[in-house]
DNA sequence: CGTAATTAAATTGTGTACAATTTAATTTTA
DNA sequence: TAAAATTAAATTGTACACAATTTAATTACG
């Protein structure tokens, strides 16, 4: 990635740079459905399991309400989700897919394959990468 | 990292989440020297090779002037770097370490080892991770 | 029961990220 | 050489990311 940075830096910079590179590769595909990458992640979680609280989304995506509240308001403005305060516990806000939000899943369905083509990736590379990250992440439990 | 996200998403989300996790692990160490992670990256590049243009820094860190200009102004406010417009080509701004900026390197020297301890990482894990990322990144050249 | 502690979102403030545009300087080229 | 094209930073605007605080609601407990 870069020769001039010393080894101790190369330890973590490549991951940081690679994550940004992936998001940049997603950009044109996500632009087509007018989502940012974090918005796409939220939609993915909701497509997998509709109706979740802000905290539940945050737990899965490692994001707090300071990030999610404005992001979810933007998704609401686009009529992709609705934000409803729970009647049984008024502290909780439930995030639910709208019809439009559900329908977007079809358009988004081809994105993962397109990304792999765009990045010229093999399934085996990704599996290997995932395996190592999982291995490292699991060390701190 | 999370079981509820489907496979196609897990392809890239783990890298995104892992990069954020690393930056969060850096935070307490960087707080101690009052740098953010991107600011630390800029200082690392300058410690490696002092005096670089905004474009050179951006090329190495994959950041544009929209990100770097305000960041460098903050480093200048902290008296860690100086920003000087080139006399031979007035379009270019040279970023140079101040004495204080150079001295900070000593304090920062222990950070990489501390990070590895904090994350409970082995050198071999990182080498493996780096190897795969390099392999994938090199596919697109 | 009523107050204290906890919890869930929202808010506030700082600092990236990046696209798009602007400004100013330098090169190209007709 | 003068206009056109290019280049380097800076600026503008939108959208995260996260710490810290605030607000409101619920639960715990003396």
Automatic annotation (TrEMBL), chains A, B:
Keywords of this entry: Cytoplasm, DNA-binding, Transcription, Transcription regulation
Pfam family, one: Staph_reg_Sar_Rot
Signal sequence residues: none
The UniProt record lists the keyword ATP-binding: no
Span of domain HTH marR-type: 1-138
Compartments, as annotated in UniProt: Cytoplasm
SUPFAM superfamilies on file: Winged helix' DNA-binding domain (SSF46785)
Repressor listed as a keyword: no
Protein name as it appears in the record: MarR family transcriptional regulator
Organism placement in taxonomy: Bacteria, Pseudomonadati, Bacteroidota, Flavobacteriia, Flavobacteriales
């Amino acid at each position: 990635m870069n020769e001039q940075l010393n080894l101790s830096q190369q330890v973590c910079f490549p991951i940081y740079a690679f994550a940004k590179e992936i998001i940049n590769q997603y950009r044109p595909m996500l632009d087509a459905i007018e989502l940012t990458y974090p918005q796409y992640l939220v939609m993915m979680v909701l497509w997998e399991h509709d109706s979740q609280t802000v905290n539940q989304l945050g737990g899965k995506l490692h994001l707090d309400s300071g990030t999610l509240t404005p992001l979810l308001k933007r998704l609401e403005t686009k009529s992709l989700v609705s934000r409803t305060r729970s009647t049984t516990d008024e502290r909780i806000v439930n995030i639910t897919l709208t019809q439009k939000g559900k329908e977007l899943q079809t358009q988004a369905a081809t994105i993962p394959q397109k990304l792999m083509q765009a990045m010229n990736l093999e399934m085996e590379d990704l599996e290997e990468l995932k395996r190592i990250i999982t291995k490292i992440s699991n060390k701190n439990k």
